[in-house]
Each structure stands twice: as C-alpha cells, then as structure tokens.
Amino acid sequence: MRTRYQRGYLRLGHRKTRPACWEFLWWDNVPEGRRVRRKAIIGTVRQYPNVEDAWQASNGLECRSMKPGIVSRNSSLTLRT
Q: Does some domain include residue 77?
C-alpha cells in the first residue's frame, strides 16, 4: 500500500555549493484536474539542525497547503522565524 502524506512532508535537499536545506513538500490540485507537487524551502540545516526544529518551522505551511489555490506557480512564500 502506498503511503499518503495528508499534511505534506519534509525532506533534506542537498545543494551543490550551499549548505543542505529543509524542504516542505505537498500535493496540490490544479483546475485542469491534475495533481502538482509543490515545495517551499524552510531553512538550512544550520538554522534547523534536526528534523523536529524544521517541523516546528513548517507548522504554518501545513494549514496553507491544505487550502487550494493559496500558492500558485508565480507566487513566492516568505517564512520568518
């Protein structure tokens, strides 16, 4: 059975020259009827050294990701800690 992430999920994204960063990912339904994966950068591993800290920083995104149309392809998210 496939795992479903109803609130999105967190992963560690590796960068070539910069420090690794935490990414919050979720699926969004678009008007054409397909599902699109969205992501927002939470912060670097220097800012949030463990996964629990990164989850705390992404708490506000969970609510926003559940509402359709909040984040469009051309808009940007700004997180303040």
A: no
